[in-house]
Amino acid sequence: MGFCSYKLLFSYVFLMLVLFKCCYGFGTFGFDIHHRYSDAVKQILAVDGLPEKGSVEYYVAMVHRDRIIRGRGLAAANDQTPLTFYDDDETHRISDLGFLHYANVSVGTPSNSYLVALDTGSDLFWIPCDCTSCLKRIQLTQYELDFNIYNPNASTTSASVPCSSSLCENQCSSASSSCPYQILYLSNGTSSSGYLVEDVLHMCTDTNQSKVVDARVTIGCGQVQTGSFLDGAAPNGLFGLGMDNISVPSTLASNGLVQYSFSMCFGSSGIGRISFGDEGSSDQAETPFNLGQTHPTYNITITQINVGGNAADLEFTAIFDSGTSFTYLNDPAYTLITTSFNSLAKDTRYSSDSSLPFEFCYALSSSQESFEYPIVNMTMKGGDQFAVTEPISFLALQTSSQSVQYLYCLAVVKSGDVNIIGQNFMTGYRIVFNRQKMTLGWTASNCVLMLLTPPLYP
């Protein structure tokens, strides 16, 4: 029977910020990423307004954020998403939790920096632009933070994308007019709309002798943002990492700057990395993407679930989505994994509580020094194993007697639509999204060594 033993040093779900730095490697562009609530980020800037990490409110807010955001790109083409980060590698926490990963990117000539969310579930790279409705500043604890607003007329390298362009999929009044875009969300009245432009994204190579590369990319000039965007969800834009031709990885590859592949490493310490052009290593596990969808996503097939050493054959598809905090499964997959986990859990299941975001939670006594929980593994199409390194999350529940009840929960939420493998299941892996080979690859990694030594690419 497979169990994971756990000393009670409480760890948490990892939200990461991306620091724009040129690091190591060959033929790639990369960013360091940091846990949104890691000690490194806290030392940069303390901002009030977020639930305490590990509290019930924290996880409720995260699940609520997922449900608001998950609509993008999953039901209709041209859906996008939200959040923040700032110049000189400063990081900021905002009361609306919004997105998970952020990058400080430089655009235009002369260049300006924009704090953008990164998401594998979205395609278009858009930023607030000559906007009539957008968030231009946010009040922090000690001062007010102003965000840069893009002005294509102020950039000498900017050019309008005409309706005649192959990238323009929307109806236009004439072939010579600028191509419009509109991104609608399935909940909360959230949207972004404007028109498309081209400009330079300033990057640098992942080599010991890094050099600056100006990559021409398509950008959404976001004139009108609505819903949660106005509450701070993505006040300075979104960096699309999806499969569409308009996405940043697609554009970098079509311009011959990198291979059509990128990786995201999710470290359990809260430190990680994203690297454009990374094709992974020769010893990584892989599974093919599912093709033929109306709106292609990083969708794969799972053929078996193994909980605590007990395997059950069950074939279903799921999207690997860096923009979702937790893992969301439909039945029968949800019932299979949760009931199997529950039957093998050695600790007492906590009584049902509607305030908890997860259904299967287990109580830990104040004197308990360690515990074991069932190991969760998945077999992917092709036969390679994906061992979930962090299937659980810890919660601190304030009881009516003003004492604290510590729980651990299987961090899987029942879905009503698509299956999503969220960031919690990806923790501890370098995940390679390879459009060149149309495969998802993964290698166990703590991600820290990737920041200290040049990675070796085959």
Automatic annotation (TrEMBL):
Pfam families cross-referenced by the UniProt entry: TAXi_C, TAXi_N
Subcellular location: Cell membrane
Active site: 119, 321
Gene3D superfamilies with a match to the protein in the record: Acid Proteases (2.40.70.10)
GO-annotated molecular function: aspartic-type endopeptidase activity
Stated family: Belongs to the peptidase A1 family.
Name of the protein described by the UniProt record: Asp domain-containing protein
Lineage of source species: Eukaryota, Viridiplantae, Streptophyta, Embryophyta, Tracheophyta
